[in-house]
Design goal:
Largest sheet: none
Number of strands: 0
Shape: flat
Radius of gyration: 23 Å
Helix content: 55-70%
Distance between the termini: 60 Å
């Protein structure tokens, strides 16, 4: 019984901590602070890498029609993803996030 009361007390305290606003709670670092104007958001990084991966896959299939319907091996997927990260790094060096979105 005592353990249950302690658990309830801890839950009440933790819910009070999370119910404070951002100004009152110094540990809150969530939205919208993580989406600053000049930063590359996680969603933009994911979408760009995913588009590159799909484009690379399409280019490989167009070049080698015999591969249509076959999933790339894990090693090939890793190589394609490494290529897309390099492309993304080059884009990020030459353009900021606002320029890229435009």
């Amino acid at each position: 019984m005592r353990k249950i009361l302690i658990l309830i007390f801890v839950l009440i305290l933790s819910s009070a901590k999370f119910s404070m606003s951002q100004e009152q709670n110094p540990w809150f670092k969530g939205f919208p602070g993580i989406l600053e104007k000049e930063k590359w958001s996680t969603q933009l990084l994911y979408d760009t890498t995913n588009a590159c991966f799909q484009g690379t896959l399409k280019w490989i299939v167009i070049t080698h029609p015999g591969l249509i319907g076959q999933a790339p091996t894990p090693w090939a997927q890793r190589q394609m993803l490494t290529h897309c990260f390099c492309v993304l790094d080059k884009i990020r060096r030459e353009h900021n996030a606002e320029q890229y979105k435009a």
